[in-house]
């Protein structure tokens, strides 16, 4: 009998209880888990590595219920010990009599955690007569190139892609009405508040705090997932269909979970006006590498955006004015940090800009020629979940890419 099977056949009343660990848990991680569990529960656990599990860095404790407060104590102790994020879970009372049963308990505990914190809930969609054939890619730009070290060193670039035809004029008008925004007159103060915009996950409000944003009640209406507004359901359906086409169906699109948003809403809207001047600073929307400890990092760890096999954080910016002339300005401006070169993506009615959330960018105020017209936009914070090991979900065609600034891969 193997040592693994011998431990799995230990009865629950034995002096040692089992701690099943996946392949990403090192011996030092396991030692820290044992010490944290002893500190929190008074029970000695024996680590049992098990191959073929569904999660890379996870440990499941025998005899601790799935949502026990004891797990919170173990997690806090691991944080104090400086252990890299991992998922520590309890199990149900089903017997741990074979490796196959243990894998079943392990898988069920991981699914329960994901469901409890909404880490992979597909966006609400509906049947639509629209198809991705209506799309035309206007900008397809790679920028901010860098080598990423890990198990395998790879060259990484962020991506900005602007798409016309994804939001047609009818849907654009519905979204504008949903935001209670007048396309010509100044900002409607009944629905919009100066300084209400907060869209930087874990970031500094100063970079967007000057901007007009939707009032709290309007934001709640936009974000309601129990009664999703039909224009939001439609635009989510179209984005999901576009991305499914880009990935041959091998992607799950979700809003960013509240467990990762740090108080930022998954949908927001802004309305820069000419009077704002130079009020806006550079910022990123979010970065899975920079998140504080929490349910998201416990499940996925901290990782560079676009890491193979990991969820990709993407924002979708939708320009809502029914008319927007070049002379009125207000592009979204992107920075290539290594070269300090800037890229402007022009606003156009109904244009959708998909961007990696870790790209440095800024809002630009309209020019004086725009008068009091706000440049309204709606922003969705999205996650593209891969469905295969090592996959990097795509947001743009790989042909016709413009390599900007530092994005050109070096020879070495």
TrEMBL record:
What InterPro entries does the record point to? Pro_4_hyd_alph_FE2OG_OXY
Q: Which residues form the Prolyl 4-hydroxylase alpha subunit Fe(2+) 2OG dioxygenase domain?
A: 276-378
Q: Does the keyword Signal apply?
A: yes
Print the keywords alphabetically. Answer: Signal
- Supply the name of the protein: 2OG-Fe(II) oxygenase superfamily protein
* Alphabetized PANTHER family for the sequence: FE2OG DIOXYGENASE DOMAIN-CONTAINING PROTEIN (PTHR35169), PROLYL 4-HYDROXYLASE ALPHA SUBUNIT FE(2+) 2OG DIOXYGENASE DOMAIN-CONTAINING PROTEIN (PTHR35169:SF1)
First and last residue of the signal peptide: 1-15
Keyword match Zinc: no
Q: Name one Pfam family in it.
A: 2OG-FeII_Oxy_3
């Amino acid at each position: 009998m193997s040592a693994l099977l011998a431990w799995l056949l230990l009865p629950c009343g034995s002096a040692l209880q089992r701690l099943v660990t996946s392949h990403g848990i090192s011996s030092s991680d396991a030692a820290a888990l044992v010490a944290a569990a002893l500190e929190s529960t008074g029970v000695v656990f024996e680590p049992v590595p098990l191959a073929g599990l569904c999660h890379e860095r996870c440990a499941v404790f025998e005899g601790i219920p799935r949502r026990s407060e004891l797990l919170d104590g173990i997690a806090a102790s691991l944080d104090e010990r400086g252990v890299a994020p991992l998922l520590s879970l309890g199990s149900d009372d089903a017997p741990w009599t074979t490796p196959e049963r243990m894998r079943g308990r392990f898988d069920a505990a991981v699914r329960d955690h994901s469901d409890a914190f909404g880490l992979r809930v597909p966006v609400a969609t509906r049947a639509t007569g629209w198809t991705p054939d209506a799309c035309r890619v206007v900008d397809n730009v790679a920028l901010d190139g860098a080598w990423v070290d890990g198990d395998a060193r790879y060259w990484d670039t962020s991506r900005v892609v602007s798409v016309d035809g994804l939001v047609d004029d009818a849907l654009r008008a519905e979204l504008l009405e949903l935001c209670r925004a007048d396309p010509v007159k100044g900002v409607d103060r009944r629905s919009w508040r100066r300084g209400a915009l907060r869209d930087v996950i874990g970031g500094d409000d100063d970079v967007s705090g000057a901007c007009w944003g939707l009032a709290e009640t309007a934001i709640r209406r936009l974000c309601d997932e129990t009664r999703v507004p039909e224009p939001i359901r439609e635009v989510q359906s179209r984005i999901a269909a576009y991305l499914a086409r880009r990935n041959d169906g091998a992607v799950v699109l979700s809003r960013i979970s509240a467990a990762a948003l740090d108080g930022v809403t998954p949908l927001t809207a802004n309305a820069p006006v000419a009077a704002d001047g130079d009020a806006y600073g550079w910022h990123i929307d979010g970065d899975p590498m920079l998140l504080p400890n929490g349910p998201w990092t416990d499940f996925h760890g901290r990782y560079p955006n676009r890491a193979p096999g990991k969820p990709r954080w993407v924002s979708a910016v939708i320009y809502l004015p029914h008319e927007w002339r070049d002379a009125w300005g207000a592009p979204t401006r992107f920075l290539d940090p290594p070269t300090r070169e800037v890229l402007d993506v022009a606003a156009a009615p109904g244009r959708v800009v998909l961007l990696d959330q870790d790209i440095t960018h800024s809002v630009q105020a309209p020019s004086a020629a725009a008068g009091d017209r706000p440049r309204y936009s709606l922003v969705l914070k999205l996650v593209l979940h891969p469905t295969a090991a090592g996959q990097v979900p795509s947001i743009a065609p790989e042909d016709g890419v413009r390599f900007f600034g530092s994005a050109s891969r070096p020879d070495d």
